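User: Can you predict the 3D structure for this chain?
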Amino acid sequence: MEYISLILLILSAATYYVIFQKAGEDGWKSFVPFYNAYIIGKISGSKVLGIIWVIVILILVFCLIVVFTKMVDIANNLIVANPTFSYEELISEMKESVSSEISMIILLIFINYIVFCISNVMLSTCFNQGLMFKILICVPYVNFIMLAILAFSKNYIYYSDEGEIVEES
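Assistant: Here is the predicted structure, written as structure tokens:
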């Protein structure tokens, strides 16, 4: 399974590299974490959407770090206090301690997905795509294929907000 994730990550990076170039941006920007989300929003026609996406991702990363550190602290404290603890004790302690943060993480993942879909729909609009393409670009895993089609097909040309064809950089 980890190989599939690695392959999708490499395909996604290459796809956004080409899409950035088609939109007149430098391809290397697709490899910079957080900045690439802003650029996707920018080439989709909404810098504000890109900024919102970066903020959501940063908050999500912060929440993940908080949950991880809390769980490590709970495990360390439980081991020091009671070396013969049971795993059931550990799990119940962690559930009580991080349940609100887990709810926040789930909400942020959902918001991240919504922003991702909006930016991809706006991006497909910049490539003059129809409704079915816009629906498919929001479907998990199918979106990798749809973005690859935008990137690697010579038939799809990027149009800026003003309707002008952008020359690849």
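The chain has a mean pLDDT of 87. The helical segments are 2-22, 35-43, 47-81, 87-126, 131-136, 142-152.
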